[in-house]
Amino acid sequence: VVILLVRQLVVVLLIRQLIVRRLIVRRLIVRQLIVLHIRRLVVVLLVRRRVVVLLICQLIVCRLIVRWLILRQLVVLHIRRLVVVLLVLRLVVVLLVRRLVVILLVRQLVNVLLVRRLVVILLVRQLVVVLLIRQLIVRRLIVRRLIVRQLIVLHIRRLVVVLLVRRRVVVLLICQLIVCRLIVRWLILRQLVVLHIRRLVVVLLVLRLVVVLLVRRLVVILHVRRLVVILLVR
User: Is a pLDDT exceeding 90 seen at residue 111?
Assistant: First the structure.
């Protein structure tokens, strides 16, 4: 009877150890899930931070490109203005030279007819100058229109680039989210498989202990019967 009680106590202790092990396994599973959730949050935060940094860098690059293009257009416009100014100065110089020549001719020639002719020539030249000034004004207007068109085209291109960049960023974010979900599912499945394997191992150990206990009990019963038979024979 004492041996049986001891064995029962041993069985109870083993069952308690199994229960404690199950609790420890559950706690480990909970810890693993918490760690996985924290890692997932960290990965999501890092991905968002990198995406924000990439967007900021792209915006800076786009601004620099737009500024460079604007400066280039301004330089071209200044060059064209200088060319126009030089042409006007050249015309003015030519006109002044011709006027001086005309004045010298007028001084040399005293005849009224020649003076009238010279006056007519000067009027014609003034008309020519007026026409040239009008042409310059028209060219300036054309240049301004071209500048406005270039600025509109640059703004449209900038908007298209921004839209394309945003679309690519959204596609990248969706792909990263899908990959993260697949990784998390695979890890969960792996943890579940590991847990099932551990449970099977624990069940097999429990069955082994039960079988061992039953075998020992049978051995004890047989030994007791043998002793009883020996006593009866005696």
Answer: no
Which tokens go with 80? 């064209």
CA 35 vs CA 31, 40, 146, 188: distances in Å: 6, 8, 62, 12
Nearest to 191 by CA among 40, 71, 30, 76: 30
The per-residue pLDDT for range 144-171, each reduced to its tens digit, is: 999 999 999 998 899 999 899 988 888 8
Phi-psi sector, 109: left (phi>0), alpha (psi -120 to 50), beta = beta
189: left (phi over 0), alpha (psi -120 to 50) or beta: alpha
Task: Report whether 22 contacts 181 (CB < 8 A).
Answer: no
> Using an 8 Å Cβ cutoff, are 98 and 125 in contact?
yes
Rounded Cα distance, 203 and 210, in Å: 10
Euclidean distance between CA atoms 213 and 35, whole angstroms: 40
Round to whole Å and give the CA distance between 70 and 145.
15
The two three-digit tokens of residue 194, written as one number: 């590991």
Q: How far is CA 31 from CA 36, 38, 186, in A?
A: 9, 10, 17
